[in-house]
């Protein structure tokens, strides 16, 4: 009967039948009803007690408790609880997914709430950034917001986590480069390794140039400039943007000066194709002083960033 009342949204009626506070199912159902009625403060108070006593209903109670904290704007408390639960050696799969989703949502809400009041202040704590970097499937908006904020923090506090992120082949190649650039800016003097497209590169941030300060950027851009700037300025701008994206994607792969023309030709062809512009590869051979086979090989290599 109580379940029927709850299903029908008759929470107040259901509460009248939920008095046995020694029964953990009763405590859980009371939380469902209080949340349904918008009585979030009461749900928070009861949730503390229900969580400490719950056994079979533990994860359901925690879910309701977190929902109450979220609705009350108690973001730090909710996040701390989620981090604690997600760090446990075992958590049922369905609740792990639920808590991961809740974590992302609460961080976003926290960010928006903070931004309204203190747009220039720190939104994420170091612990929250660490949690995001460690997550298997991270919301990309949250990830890039966290990396952006990391520029204002001491990145050395997260070096062990960043090391793991850089060598994990499942982490995003572009985000890896942004982390490397932050370490370059902060002159981190550490030997490190990064995985990019199945290849591993050793590097020390304190000796590395920023991505667009590499000789390759100006070298490849010069070839594109000579070929396109006066003939097709719009295509040239698109190629320049794509070149920057590629260099961020492949960094810290070194590009031999002898290959600058081949990269330029491949970028010209690839971007033109995306824009439905007909390009004759044999003409690119002449324009960029390189052979057809080299251009085709480079086009295939560039397509790795589509994955």
TrEMBL record:
One Pfam family per UniProt: DUF3196
Domain of life (superkingdom): Bacteria
Protein name: Uncharacterized protein
